[in-house]
Amino acid sequence: MDIIAQLANLLVPLLSLLKNYHQKENFTNYLSGLLLQDEYFSSHGISKLTLEKELWQFYYFLGQRINWRKLFYKLARLVLKEYPDETLFLVTDGTPLKQEYAHNRITKDGFINIAKMKNVPHNELVSLSLTNRSLYMPLDYKIWYSQKVVSENDYEKKTDQFLEMIKRYHFLGLPFRRIAFDGMFASKTILKWLNRNGYTWITRIKRNRGIIVNGKKEILGELGLKDEESIVCELNGVKGLVKILRFSYKDEIVYAATNQYSMSNEELKYGYKDR
């Protein structure tokens, strides 16, 4: 049985969660395409080649009265029975939901017109997913809103959204404890929580990050690390050793870090690229 047919079988019991939802066939096609990350998948007007149309369709589906988290976690548990694969790992990322000519921004209370505002950031989709590089399983998501379009009480930092999702994942007891995420989430609070709860992490850190080498405080970018050179040290404010590797990727210098400090340079580099 090929992977498409297996996914179709896995989605059958999930449809019972879509109470009073009258477009189950379209939804099944859409979710299958999302899981496979197929470059050309098209359903209900979605196309990877027409990004704006795809995003509006995405908003449409997210706006349906569906318990997305329950559905995604249910799907993940079904997939784990079919693919008891230790290569599965978590990924957290923030993806801008760009609409180049839009006059509105999304908020939890609906659309806010930004015609008279300046430099309003686009919404972002902050997501938590499981992947083995060929199958992509969304587990949770939060939509980030700019402070310019929501009240102080409604505003959430991306790092707070990350923590809410990973704590929910941890509570629900899925077994995988390896996670890769973008540098925007590499805060002291998040790294300390992951360390305390037994997660192996890989992330990118900024060159101005404070580190401790042999008991002495340093600035990472001032150490003079060369391409493909690594160092084992500590991050300021985060207990425990980390390994940091400098390398060139897509015409820029990357500092990738992990708390699995025995990891080889190649493993760290490709672990970052997996993200």
Describe this structure in words.
- The protein is of the alpha+beta class.
- The chain has a domain at 202-275.
- Helix content is 30%, strand content 27%.
- The chain has helices at 3-11, 24-36, 51-62, 68-82, 158-172, 188-196, 265-274, and strands at residues 89-96, 104-107, 110-113, 124-131, 136-144, 178-181, 200-204, 210-213, 216-219, 230-235, 238-249, 252-258.
- A 10-stranded mixed β-sheet has the order 5-4-1-6-7-12-11-10-8-9, with helices on both faces. The chain has a two-stranded antiparallel ribbon with strand order 2-3.
Helical fraction equals 25-40%
Strand content: 25-35%
Question: How is the biggest beta sheet arranged?
Answer: 10 strands, mixed
- The helix/strand class is alpha+beta
Please mark out the parts with pLDDT under 50 across 5 or more consecutive residues, or reply none: 37-48
C-alpha Rg (nearest Å): 20 Å
Question: Strand order across the biggest sheet?
Answer: 5-4-1-6-7-12-11-10-8-9
Q: Any idea what the shape is?
A: globular
- How many β-strand stretches? 12
Helix tally equals: 7
What is the terminal separation in angstroms?
29 Å
